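Folding Problem: From Residues to Backbone Shape
Fields: amino acid sequence; protein backbone structure tokens
RECORD BEGINS BELOW THIS LINE
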Amino acid sequence: MQFILGILTILVAIGVWSWRLRMARDGAREAADLARTAANLPRRLAFKYRSGRNGLDLIEDPREAAAIMMMEIARARGGPLTDRQSDVISEEMIRHFSFTLDEAHELVAHAAWVTNKAPLPQETMRRLSQKIVADKYLGPKEVVDLDSMLVAVSEAEGAPTKDQLSLLQVFRDKAGLRT
């Protein structure tokens, strides 16, 4: 009987120790998961912050804002973007931004995509104009250059329409340019 009691005691001791080891292993896994979660927290918060913003709020590069503004001016003529308008936008980007032709075409395509999902053209121009004017790296020369770029796009298919002139005026008002 003592022999059976001894074996039973040993089995209970082994069971207790294996249970404690399993609990320690589970605790270590949970600690590792917690550490991974904490390490990924800044990335997740940045994603949540960005995902909560709309497309225009994500624009930080003034060249991207300028491309979208040119696209809005071109589309204000009515109808789809013409090849001539697209060419003028690309030419202006190459001339003023020192882009290659491929880079200019990529930015034109991106601007077209953004304007499909953007708010009304007046609001888009107002918000992007504010970004351009508030940019600490852009001076009066760059603002005037952007105005000439917008005018060139508005004149790509002939005389600017009333809607195109209205969008140009939104930019000029925000930029403090006199017409």
Notes: Helices lie at 2-51, 62-75, 83-97, 101-117, 121-134, 140-154, 162-175.
